[in-house]
Amino acid sequence: MIRVAWQIANSAEWVGGLNYFINLAKAVRSLPDARIEVVALGSTDNLPAPLNSLPGIHMPPLTRVTRLWDAFGRHYLQNGGMTGRFLRKNRVGLLSHGPALGRRSRVAALCWIPDFQHVRRPEFFSAEEIAMRDRHFAGGAADAQGILLSSADAAADFARLFPQHAHKARILRFVADSRPAAEEEQRAVLGKYDIHEPFFHVPNQLWIHKNHGVVLEALKILKSKGRTPLVISTGRTNDYRHPEYFPNFKKTVEEAGLAERFRFLGLAPYEDVRALMTATVAFVNPSFFEGWSTTVEEAKSLGKRILLSGIGVHREQAPERGVFFDPEDPEALAAAMEECLATYDPLAESQARAAAQAALPGRMRAFGREYEKIVLGMASGKEKP
């Protein structure tokens, strides 16, 4: 049994990161004969289930002097520093999703790079954040024993940016453990939000790269034809990079006379979101960029239709009931929305949901097995990418 330590992202600004760890924990727990044990580096008190039940190992607080000594050991001596020694003392064979410990560390580090959005879409970032990400990713590429990526699309970016370290890349495509809400739950939530007609669901946070604007333009087109479908948006509305984005976008929606047809529920409780995802006609994910889309994985697990931008990573995810469109073509999205409404069949939806749920346990186990394989290989030093 290999112990692998996680440094778990628990940021209110990045719900997707926390959901990633929740799904990974469920995948590992689904293995009937797991050969790895996950422990959390630090407290799990404020984490949701199942993360809050992980064993925790608590490194003694570092003083100013010991913090400098730890950094010196990791970055200059490349020997793992005090963090590496602490992990080894606690029988940890791999630090996963954390910082690099150094090329000579006796505890290997598997650093996670979710995506290279700042390289592909630099217009969405400040020069300072681009420089910070460049430094962070370059340091991990040079000093970690492995780099975990969520897609072949991201792995290609990594190989292009760091060709001398391309052999360190490991690809782990995550699966969303999404379960449908019961009919009574759906009715209660639809009543709570005053939804009484078929609707599309955009379950993406209101960040600028998520491209909600093309949905608005599609609604304008459909409004001009005399039928404007209802669109429900859920997700955090504050983009830390562009705090003005959502207020301005909401004002634009109101000025278009579509405030009642494009509704923003904000960061709704997950059980409410689950009911909305189950009840919707189709998901919409018009994003300009993704690392590996949770929204697409949720649609796959629930057997839902999804209208999604035809970016490379979405095509790699290949949802069975996906309809691709150019993220800058509102006409194409409007046509897809019309077709979805015209062909919606409750019986077909029920059958697709049942098939997706039947396949989900096997998909989760495969996700867990792939992570286990990577961990065992990294910890032993024998695994090949």
Summary keywords:
385 residues; alpha/beta; Rossmann fold; 7-stranded parallel β-sheet
Word description of this protein:
The protein has two domains: 2-175 and 364-380, Glycogen Phosphorylase B (Rossmann fold), CATH 3.40.50.2000; 183-344, Rossmann fold (3-Layer(aba) Sandwich), CATH 3.40.50.2000. 45% of the residues lie in helices and 15% in strands. It has 14 helices and 13 strands. It has helices spanning 15-29, 64-75, 81-89, 117-120, 127-143, 152-161, 183-192, 213-224, 245-255, 270-279, 294-302, 312-317, 330-343, 346-380, and strands at residues 2-6, 36-41, 56-57, 92-96, 108-112, 146-149, 169-171, 199-202, 230-234, 262-266, 282-285, 306-309, 322-325. The strands form two sheets. A seven-stranded parallel beta sheet has the order 3-2-1-4-5-6-7, sandwiched between helices. α2 crosses α3, α7 (183-192) crosses α10 and α8 packs across α13. The longest helix is centred in the C-terminal third of the chain and has 35 residues, at 346-380. 41% of the residues are buried.
The mean pLDDT is: 94
Count the strands?
13
Q: Spatial order of the strands in the main sheet?
A: 3-2-1-4-5-6-7
Write down the CATH topology of the largest domain. Rossmann fold
User: At the first level of CATH, what is the class of the largest domain?
Assistant: Alpha Beta
- Compute the number of structural domains: 2
How much helix is in the residues?
A: 40-55%
**CATH superfamily annotation of the largest domain:** Glycogen Phosphorylase B
Oligomer: single chain
Number of helices: 14
Shape: globular
